[in-house]
Design brief:
Length: 412
């Protein structure tokens, strides 16, 4: 009896408390701040050594404006960095050996989202009710259900690109998994954007280049620009017709160009005047072209939007040829005359980069040394939405970029 009475009393108390709190809750709901808008632009292998001179020459006005209005610096990356390995760390803020996507090929299979052993940020955000839209982000194939949409990027498998490694299937040619979530969006995109390339172009083989260097280089570069134009159109369409609170878009042709057209000098390893003197501006030009893509994306943002530009690693001229695996993962047939790479054992040799602007982010702040790392991206984005950092995440909120960093930390 006593216990039953106690239960009744408790229930009444709960009811009473609920009734009293209702107006408060209602009020809280009506004054609840809308969720912030965050746009992340990923650039595969953005090299600060190459973009700094371009910034000085005024050839990247859009990136310059982000730097002026925000914070930027090097981004410490993981050891032997490559795209799937680092992107999966960006997604999960965990080490490659923890998230499972340790490279392009894992246990003989092309890296894919089913291998992810840690929860990615798109899943955390979706569960918290944030709308998520992602397009052409590397290592997101097959796509996973999100509270919005997802279109895969690098490592998407398809016709003439059966293993998905560094080749370019069109949307209609995708095989072995879904490249678009939800499925209905695929039809809509084919109708309104066209049959775009999901990843960048495969690099030419040495035999194709021999004797036709200029012709092959120019043809390859125009294909790269065609792919970039298609992806820009895709981004434009998505931002117009499917705006989401969290958006992540990515570009990967810059890195590919750097691997075999980095403007090296005759004393660098692998210099071949027949190739390396033909278009020395091809690689810097990729960033000038990227800046135009960024400009198109920025047209869809305002002063209340957080814009984050992130590169998974840099890229540097070769310092030696490796005996065991001469071209590592770097090209499909392992015959492309690769002259620059990023999977150096010491990731600090090829840091990525990080740029951020938005409400409460310091202006014209340069992060020195390795203050920011690839582990910090996910916790910092979650922080913007007021979502507590999951325990397995190894990074920290980049509180130093916020104007009132004490408050930023307290909110965590
Ligand atoms: Zn690469």
């Amino acid at each position: 009896m006593v216990s039953r009475l106690f239960v009744m009393k408790s229930l009444n108390l709960i009811l009473l408390l609920t009734l009293f709190s209702l107006p408060l809750l209602g009020q809280a709901q009506s004054t609840a701040k809308p969720k912030p808008r965050v746009v992340v632009v990923g650039v595969n292998g953005m090299e600060l050594d190459v973009i700094r001179p371009l910034l000085l020459q005024g050839k990247m006005p859009n990136l310059s404006s982000v730097i002026k209005k925000g914070a930027y610096g090097k981004l410490r990356t993981v050891s032997a960095p490559n795209c799937p390995r680092v992107y999966s760390t960006l997604f999960t803020s965990t080490k490659p050996e923890e998230h499972g996507v340790s490279g392009f090929i894992v246990g003989g299979i092309t890296a894919n989202t089913n291998m992810l052993k840690q929860e990615p940020i798109w899943s955390v955000l979706s569960k918290e009710g944030v709308t998520v839209g992602m397009a052409n982000v590397p290592a997101t194939f097959p796509v996973m259900p999100v509270n919005g949409f997802m279109i895969s990027g690098m490592l998407t498998r398809g016709k003439n690109c059966e293993d998905g490694v560094l080749c370019a299937p069109k949307l209609s040619e995708v095989q072995g998994g879904d490249a678009v979530y939800p499925a209905t969006l695929k039809t809509e995109l084919l109708k309104n954007v066209g049959d775009f390339y999901i990843d960048c172009e495969r690099m030419p083989a040495a035999a194709d280049l021999k004797g036709h260097e200029t012709e092959v280089i120019d043809a390859w570069l125009s294909k790269v620009q065609l792919i970039r134009d298609q992806q820009t159109q895709l981004f434009d369409y998505l931002l117009d017709h499917h705006p989401t609170q969290f958006t992540w878009l990515a570009q990967s042709c810059e890195d590919r160009t750097g691997h075999w057209l980095y403007p090296i000098a005759p004393y660098h390893a692998g210099y071949n005047p027949k190739i390396n003197s033909v278009r020395p501006d091809a690689f810097p030009n990729q960033y000038v072209a990227f800046d135009k893509v960024l400009g198109e994306i920025l047209k869809h943002t305002d002063d209340n939007t957080y814009v984050i530009i992130v590169s998974d690693h840099g890229i540097k001229p070769l310092r030696e040829f490796e005996e065991t695996d001469p071209h590592a993962h770097m090209d499909h047939e392992k015959t492309t005359p690769v002259i620059a790479k990023h999977d150096f054992a010491d990731g600090d040799d090829v840091p990525g980069s990080f740029f951020a602007m938005g409400p409460g982010i310091k202006h014209d702040l340069r992060l020195m040394g390795f203050e920011a790392s690839v582990y910090d991206l996910a916790p910092t984005i979650l922080h913007l939405y007021g979502i507590e950092q999951p325990v397995q995440m190894r990074g920290h909120v980049l509180s130093e970029i916020f104007e009132n960093s004490d408050k930023a930390i307290a909110k965590k």
